[in-house]
Specification:
CATH architecture: 3-Layer(aba) Sandwich
Order of helices and strands: HEHHEHEHHHHEHEEEH
Largest sheet: 5 strands, parallel
CATH topology: Rossmann fold
CATH superfamily: SGNH hydrolase
CATH class: Alpha Beta
Structural class: alpha/beta
Oligomer: single chain
Low-confidence stretches: 1-31
Number of domains: 1
Helix content: 25-40%
Mean pLDDT: 90
Number of strands: 7
Distance between the termini: 31 Å
Shape: globular
Radius of gyration: 20 Å
Strand content: 5-15%
Length: about 325
């Protein structure tokens, strides 16, 4: 979603070691095992984007805001002997930006919250261009921007400002529009997966869902706390969790299943680590008010958890664990 508004251990080491060819007596030094080619596609929940998810490691910057603690980079450090990573994820990416559109990245240019002195950035090619016929693994985490989750969140902030923390002004205004948005997510996602499979017919495709951002008990969320959800009412938070983000994950899961692909569900593993939990793995509107905008994105702990689950899915798909 746009920036606007750990468990492999010895198993991974053994799996990686098992792929190193045995050196024959009298032979020269064994060649390194040929890596699997992995392409990481996705939006800001893959790219990292926010300072709480590490430092931007690409210089000069292209505005996609890929950070060194995002889950693809964590996995590359853990499984670098197995996987040759091409990470083309980009903050603010829609599903169409992965499939066929050139995207104009926004960096950290998020007025009125913050402005990026290097904005505007040059367009980047469709992410699927990085997928080749020999690609072995593709991971993708996308859908939130196509749904317009950030715009929905921003609208809720505006509508709920004068609510006094009661009622559901945002649900009342936007609920009727959600089914059509979800239908577009499903349609665009189906087209994207068809494109990926056509470009890499033998690749294992792993679809990554979104983590829990809103707790089941919204009384944990402090009204008007900008390091949580600011003015958004408990009723609207319940609606956002149950009728917006939940169905988004279900739409992605179903479409992935229709293509015979893997779906990585992060909901359960992050259930007690929402924006409003003490041990949060997702930052609120700000990670530090008023200077560090986060606009509800995973921090390093959230990306570490995603890395654990996505790593396991990759190893399972490749049959090496």
């Amino acid at each position: 979603m746009r920036a606007r508004l750990a468990v492999l251990g010895s198993t991974v080491a053994l799996a990686a070691g098992a792929l190193v060819p045995v050196q024959l007596a009298g032979a020269g030094p064994a060649a390194a095992a040929a890596p699997y080619d992995w392409v990481a596609l996705g939006d800001s929940y893959t790219a990292g984007v926010i300072p709480a998810a590490g430092d931007v490691f690409e210089f000069p910057r292209n505005g996609c805001q890929r950070t060194d603690q995002s889950y693809p980079q964590v996995i590359e450090r853990d499984l670098g002997s197995l996987l040759d990573l091409t990470n083309v994820s980009c903050g603010a990416a829609t599903i169409k930006d992965i499939t066929s559109n050139y995207q104009s990245p926004i960096g950290r240019h998020l007025p009125p919250f913050t402005e990026d002195p290097e904005y505007p950035f040059f367009p980047v090619p469709p992410q699927s261009d990085a997928v080749k016929s020999g690609t072995d693994v593709v991971t993708v985490g996308a859908g939130g921007n196509t749904l317009g989750f950030d715009d929905i969140l921003f609208t809720c902030l505006q509508l709920d400002q004068d609510s006094g923390g009661v009622g559901t002004p945002c649900r009342d205004k936007l609920a009727d529009h959600i089914p059509a948005r979800l239908a577009k997510v499903s349609s665009d996602y189906d087209e994207m997966l068809a494109t990926v499979h056509k470009r890499a017919p033998h690749a294992k495709v792993i679809n990554v869902g979104y983590p829990t951002v809103i707790p089941q008990d919204t009384s944990k969320c402090r009204h008007n706390d900008y390091e949580q959800f600011a003015s958004i009412t408990p009723g609207d938070l319940d609606w956002l969790r149950d009728d917006v983000q939940g169905p988004l994950n279900k739409a992605i899961e179903k479409t992935a299943g229709d293509h015979g692909d893997t779906f990585v569900d992060l909901t359960d593993s992050t259930r007690n680590h929402s924006v409003c939990d003490a041990g949060k793995w997702v930052e609120g509107l700000y990670s530090y008010f008023p200077t560090k905008v986060a606009f509800v994105h995973p921090n390093t702990l959230g990306h570490k958890n995603a890395a654990d689950h996505v790593s396991a899915a990759i190893l399972n798909a490749l049959g090496v664990n």
